[in-house]
Automatic annotation (TrEMBL):
GO terms for biological process: translation. It holds the Pfam family Pep_deformylase. CDD domains: Pep_deformylase. Transmembrane segments: none annotated. It comes from Chitinophaga cymbidii. InterPro entries: Peptide_deformylase, Peptide_deformylase_sf. This is Peptide deformylase. One of its GO terms (molecular function) is peptide deformylase activity. HAMAP family: Pep_deformylase (MF_00163).
Amino acid sequence: MILSIVAYGHQVLREKSKDISPDYPNLQQLIANMWETMYASSGVGLAAPQINKPIRLFVVDSEQIVNNLEEDEKDAWPGDKGIKSVFINAQIIDTEGEEWAYQEGCLSIPKIREDVYRPEKVKIRYMDEHFKEHERTFHGITARVIFHEYDHIEGKLFIDYLKPLKKRMLKGKLDDISKGKIKVDYKMNFPR
């Protein structure tokens, strides 16, 4: 089932999410709905707060980005094949490498894309959809998508990384999003 994505301005996007246990109600159906919602919205990641659930759960499919990179971009991140994974109760253990800019966007903040600087690599511990624990290091575009979705479960948004002047310049667009004065081609839940 395709779910509504919560728009900028909703409080849930600013809350630190809670861990869940394997007996979380209808977890497998929720995960399936998140995948369906993400793909229907042309996203590469989706975090539970974006569907109004303040829990530490997100899904990532960076394969679709990596498979469509230009040749010169592939050289920048050798070995990044992309992933399609579920992350439950994730905790970042370490980051490394130089910060690099990439134009990020967000399904909860439609029609805004800005350069965000993030480290090259992330080491993260998480559970998969079967509650099997993993500890892995990701780099390149995959790390970027993980950082972005991880921020959602921490109550942060990509616009928080922008310089104050840039944020002031975007204020009108952000206000329009929070007031529902935009059109998107996916289901959105705007603040009242």
